[in-house]
């Protein structure tokens, strides 16, 4: 099985911690040069320093906010203008604020659309021409199992993830012929700061303890446990590899079997 990503360059968004950072590690271990994008420069530096360089990989980072697609466009345009290409794009950013849909302000909904959909669209428009020229490209969107089954209390996320999922499927149809795949990977409950935030909010909303929320959550997962970041990242890395060239336009849950539908 060909998992070799040497001489490939990946841009991994939301990569200063959590799932994005875990994906960056896996891609680097398969030989890719990895460029990280997020807001916190200290964390970006630390992740960059920790990436594998044993195969001569060269890594870097962009300090940027996914709520500002124009700035990201400038940064990536500048990067590409130096003769570089991006072979693998991992769209990812922080999850939108939790809360019921009807209470959501237009401003917060707009923020979710911008950070998740408009930034992904901007990046795809920038990197796809190079992917087409190289006849190889991988676009991965880190979404949520909410794409298959909306999660109560995550109104903005449920709405925006579905939009990105259909955006991705449409793009997959349009550019599959050029050796480019576009796939969505849907994390279930995976141990990161985001999950700590959600469990903390659920506990305070329900007037109970975080331990009680964790126990209830685990009872709904056939695997009987929460997911590890590395398990999620391994699925993404496989989809980025040459071996996964005929997998296109899918939603892949990595959720220990929690989602009830196929
Ligand atoms: N973990 C789970 O169980 C789970 C389950 C379902 C879905 N998800 C979704 O998967 C995605 C990643 O989750 P995670 O658990 O890894 O979250 P996380 O630990 O909160 O990490 C989020 C990453 O995104 C970056 N980020 C946040 N806001 C940003 C912005 N405005 N611009 C640029 N970068 C930004 C953060 O870095 P900076 O702060 O440095 O910018 C960080 O690197 C999220 O969308 C989350 O909702 C996670």
Automatic annotation (TrEMBL):
InterPro entries according to UniProt: NAD(P)-bd_dom_sf, SDR, SDR_fam
Family under the similarity heading: Belongs to the short-chain dehydrogenases/reductases (SDR) family.
Protein name: SDR family oxidoreductase
UniProt organism field: Sediminibacterium sp. KACHI17
